[in-house]
Design goal:
This is MYND-type domain-containing protein. The protein is an all-alpha fold. It has helices spanning about 40-60, 70-100, 105-120, 130-140, 145-160, 165-185, 185-205, 210-225, 230-255, 280-300, 305-320, 325-340, 345-355, 360-365, and strands spanning about 25, 35. It folds into two domains: about 1-60 and about 75-165, Tetratricopeptide repeat domain (Serine Threonine Protein Phosphatase 5, Tetratricopeptide repeat, Alpha Horseshoe); about 230-255 and about 280-370, Serine Threonine Protein Phosphatase 5, Tetratricopeptide repeat, CATH 1.25.40. A two-stranded antiparallel sheet has the order 1-2.
């Protein structure tokens, strides 16, 4: 029988959003959520409630009486769409908070995602697994390894019962189990799980996709702990290259110069280049991963070429995120490191981006941002 961590105790109508204990404190804004203590209300508010407070009113308000069968079906369809949108929002927020190291705040976001997934898909659906994984990773971050084991065991059981489970979900499951083994100090099994993560992610997205890079990054961290620096270094370089290539594609689209038509007569328009985008969780992942590698390279006193590449990757990231103050702080390091080889291709790219970042106005125009 599937575990339901949100089960309603008999006879209790109002439960705490965070721990499911009887609740007596009401949110005075939405008036549809309740808490057992002010502390839990604060954790939930910081984690997810401030984002979804007004949205919950529509989802939890009593359904109006509708005479028409068509009206009832339309309302049912509308509610289903709202619930699915809420699942996406709360999952993404939970994952973002994990990448930011806010493990306690990630819990309420994951619990909300789990609630809505159960309502929409039922207790045994594979759609519950992403929420279990967020809860598992949050528990690892908080040092609650027994809780993490419970959530990940539930995720594993659901995956085993779903033969058509996607490579994407299997990848994320192996990644979280790998993190659990690493937290326990069982590094060989951690590497085994992370290897499976990379296999499934590569099957789903390719070996050089940003969604696969997380497996390489965590595997590098394990080798780093084992003091196998050569292997760790090669994996950190792989992660840097994946993000470098992805961010450079976005920069190239934003700074592309339109072709000026020549001569007389109609000119065939160039098809617009589609810009790749990052969701909130991917932005947080990029910030966490690239800054961690940058800090490590600084401590290692890495070669000028290695330092130039990671500094330029971080510069591109903050440029894409329109954080030009941070972009300028990293481009300085990239320019300084690139002076060792001023004529190579990377140095030229660094110099060009440095010129575009000279003033907020020119950087804003170059990156398609309204000033």
């Amino acid at each position: 029988m599937a575990l339901n961590p949100l089960a309603n105790p008999k006879g209790v109508k109002r439960l705490c959003e965070l721990c499911q204990k009887p609740a007596f404190i009401e949110c005075l804004d939405c008036r549809v959520t309740y808490y057992c203590t002010k502390e839990h209300q604060g954790i939930d508010y910081r984690g997810i409630h401030k984002k979804i407070c007004s949205l919950l009113i529509h989802l939890r308000a009593p359904a109006p009486f509708l005479n028409s069968g068509e009206d009832r079906q339309n309302r049912k369809d509308e509610m289903l769409l709202r619930q699915k949108q809420m699942i996406d929002l709360t999952r993404t927020t939970g994952q973002k908070l994990l990448f930011e190291g806010k493990h306690e705040q990630a819990v309420p976001a994951a619990m909300q995602a789990l609630k809505f997934a159960i309502d929409v898909y039922g207790l045994s659906s594979i759609e519950l697994v992403p929420s279990y994984l967020i809860l598992g990773e949050a528990s690892i971050g908080l040092g609650h390894l027994s809780h993490a084991e419970e959530y990940l065991s539930q995720a594993q059981w659901t995956v085993l019962k779903t033969p058509e489970c996607s490579h994407d979900i299997q990848s994320r499951l192996h990644r979280n189990v790998g993190l659990l083994y690493a937290a326990k100090g069982d590094y060989p099994e951690s590497l085994n799980q992370l290897g499976n993560d990379i296999y499934h992610s590569s099957e789903a997205f390719g070996t050089d996709d940003i969604r696969t890079s997380g497996g390489y990054f965590h595997m590098a961290n394990v080798f780093f702990r084992l003091n196998k620096m050569k292997t760790a270094d090669s994996l950190y370089k792989k992660v840097t290259t994946i993000w470098f290539t992805f961010l450079e594609r976005i920069i190239n689209v934003r700074t592309r110069t339109p072709v000026v038509p020549k001569g007389v007569g109609p000119v065939a328009e160039e098809p617009p280049m589609k810009e790749e985008v990052l969701d909130e969780a991917q932005e947080a992942e990029a910030i966490q991963v690239l800054n961690a590698i940058y800090d490590m390279r600084e401590q290692q006193r890495a070669t000028a070429q290695v330092m130039a590449k990671i500094a330029y990757a971080v510069t591109m990231l903050y440029t894409v995120l329109h954080d030009f103050s941070r972009a300028n702080s990293f481009i300085y390091t990239a320019v300084k490191a690139s002076k060792a080889n001023p004529e190579d291709e990377l140095s030229k790219k660094i110099a060009e981006l440095a010129r575009m970042l000279q003033t907020p106005y020119t950087s804003g125009i170059a990156m398609g941002m309204k000033i």
